[in-house]
Amino acid sequence: MRQMIGRFLRRGLKPFGFELITRDDMQNQLLVEHELKAFHTHSIVSVADHEGRILDVNDLFVETLGYCAEEMRGRCISDFYSEGDAALFGEIHATLLSGRSWRGQQRLRCKDGNIIWVHATLYPLFDAYGNHVKSVSVRTDITATKQSQHEREMQQAMNLFQDELFMFTTDTLRYTYMNEAAKRRWGWSDTDYIDKTLQLSNPSFDRDTFLARAAPLLAGEVEEICYTSEIYDDPYEVKLQLMTTASGKRRFVSVERNITDQLALEKAKNEFTATVTHELRSPLTSIKGGIGLVLSGAAGDVPDKVKELLEISHRNADRLVLIVNDMLDLEKIAAGQMSFQMQDYDAAHLFSEAEHANAGYLEQFDVTLQVDCAPQARSITCDPNRMLQVLTNLLTNAAKFSKPGGNIRLALEQTPEEDVVIVEDFGQGIPAEAQASIFERFTQAKGAQTKRVRGTGLGLSIVKAIVEMHDGRVDMCSIEGEGTTFRIYLPRRAIVEGQAPQQLRA
Question: Is residue 478 a contact partner of residue 492, using CB atoms and an 8 Å limit?
Fold first, then answer.
């Protein structure tokens, strides 16, 4: 190829269709013209000026990229590079200016948005004074080869997965790939799944439901969608993502795992936890009560050294009782056994109850609660006892992280659609590395204040669970050294007077 281009250039090549000025005889002229015809048939050719602006292109260039010649003339060739190759233009231009040719792989963007891979060779042309005036680019489409190589490498890796992996088109939902685990589920070979769709492989599959679920993924709003689905009466955990192939086409990637054994294990674990916590609560309560009686002097005077040891035991017993109660609450919520009596409840009264219930704790940490809730504020829709539990967890948590003499703010913001309860402290804040897992069980942010009173590590898990049982949500914003703000968003509901207590969905 390089020798042929050199021969054309030496013979006075002019773009396009390569009008030749030659001193050879007619037979040699015809031979060159045949070579040129073959050259144009198999190569994507363009000529650009010294700044990279396109002067002319051959028919295969037009056919491959989908633009007409007039759309491309005068535009910089880099306009047609893939976004990931934009910096490549400077490297190529510098190489051509130095008098050297450039060879390598590029990605070009077609008019329809698809990306093609090409192997490119660019030759600089100079005038009689040594000025770079033009460059000739010869490209070969290697998209099919590149994509085939990419798919082979990807398939080799995905065949190692124990989970079932499927790839299918975003429009027809037709399978384009299954790994070995997926093929084993259906008993298919490499050719059996070709031209099959999700609807054909799973009779219970509903196309409209699936597309509605996948809409945020297609819109670019999320990177992954996780959900559970029944497939032939077996529960599966499905993780759905979107990928773009080497040719620019979008594909759904679905990783599916049979979670029958996992659910059975979780059920056994939950039953065990519930049994243990129930069995622990009664003896722990008795132990705590007995120690309390001894400390109160019911059994007579206690030496100071013994009293000190008993006080330590009493605090630890108290903490164990809190852990057991919190675990029981979480298990009730998970099992759907915690009932909720929803009502329109006076917000100012709820805040006042929270303030009085936690007054002693706030005093212990020398913090002041500031309540911002106007007496005329409308009621909020909640189970007041459960919401008081939420506020207690948040207020005690805020007290632990506040500095002595500091403030905590409890406020209410209301819109026609929802009520927003705010608990804000101005203490040490939560470390950035702990924020992502702050609502998980047994998670506690590290800090000097937490050393004074240790919690169960379950309070925020309970907050999140109860709020979600209200069909609400909770979020957190924290800056180290400045403080933390929790916001609870509760939707407005229509509560019918005299309505029976409502048990929310689990």
Answer: no
pLDDT band at 490 (very low <50, low <70, confident <90, very high): very high
Cβ atoms 90, 102 nearer than 8 A? no
CA angle 49, 55, 56 (to 5 degrees): 135
HEC secondary structure over 18-82: CECCCCCCHHHHHHHHHHHHHHHHHCEEEEEECCCEEEEECHHHHHHHCCCHHHHCCCEHHHHEC
Length in residues, the chain: 506
CA-CA-CA-CA dihedral for 371, 376, 378, 380, to nearest 10: 30
Residues 6+ apart with CB under 8 A from 366: 404, 405, 406
Contact criterion met (CB below 8 Å) for 76 and 59: no
Q: Hunting for tokens 């007077």 — which residue is that?
A: 497
Q: Which helix (H) or strand (E) holds 167?
A: strand 164-169
pLDDT reported for residue 506: 30
pLDDT at 151 over 70: no
Q: Between residues 142 and 441, which one has the greater pLDDT?
A: 142
Give ∠ CA 368-346-476 in degrees, rounded to 5. 50
Tokens 């005093």 appear where? 363
What would the pLDDT profile of 234-243 be if each residue is shown by its tens digit? 888 999 999 8
- Give the dihedral sign, CA 281/283/289/294: negative
Mean pLDDT for 482-500 is 73
Alpha-carbon distance of 55 to 211, in angstroms, equals: 46
pTM of the model: 0.45
pLDDT of residue 302: 82
In 10 A of CB 252, how many CB atoms?
A: 20
- In the predicted model, is pLDDT for residue 413 greater than 70? yes
Contact by Cβ (8 Å): 486, 326: no
Average pLDDT over residues 94-108: 91
Q: 481's torsion region: left (phi>0), alpha (psi -120 to 50) or beta?
A: left
Please check whether residue 124 is in contact with residue 97, taking contact to mean a CB–CB distance below 8 angstroms: yes
Tens of pLDDT along 382-407?
999 889 889 988 999 899 889 899 99
- Report for 3-12, 44-53, 441-450: range of highest mean pLDDT: 44-53
Distance CA 320, CA 277 (A): 10
In the chain, % helix, strand, coil (3-state, to 5) comes to: 40, 25, 35
Q: Measured at the alpha carbon of residue 19, what is the angle toward residues 16 and 21, in degrees to the nearest 5?
A: 150
How far apart (Å, rounded) are the C-alpha atoms in residues 170 and 219?
Answer: 12
Which whole number is the average pLDDT over 174-196?
84
Q: Closest by alpha carbon to 343, among 389, 378, 383? A: 383
- C-alpha 133/C-alpha 99 separation (Å) is 11
Tokens representing 283 are: 């003896």
CB distance 421 to 488 below 8 Å = yes
